[in-house]
Design brief:
The chain has one domain: Beta-grasp domain (Ubiquitin-like (UB roll)). About 15% of the residues lie in helices and about 30% in strands.
């Protein structure tokens, strides 16, 4: 299946091959989840990623489907 991803924050700097303001289309296995997407992108949990689709945050076990447009953010800490 194909999904379109957009990376926000410093993720685009850390993963320039997936960085584009318009997003990048990638191919994933049909049974992929939000956590599987992060594994594919090699984004570790220690980076504090948040995965969003249709204006809602996804849990790692939530499925992603063909044609989804997904945004990945890195958590911001500090004050």
């Amino acid at each position: 299946m194909k999904v379109k991803i957009q990376l926000f924050g410093v993720l685009g700097l850390k993963l320039p091959e997936f960085a584009s303001p318009e997003g990048v289309e990638i191919e994933l296995p049909d049974d992929s989840t939000a956590g599987g997407l992060l594994e594919y992108l090699k984004i570790p949990e220690t980076w504090g990623p948040a995965v969003s689709m249709d204006s809602r945050l996804l849990k790692y076990e939530d499925p992603v489907r063909d044609g989804d447009e997904i945004r990945v953010f890195q958590a911001v800490h500090g004050g």
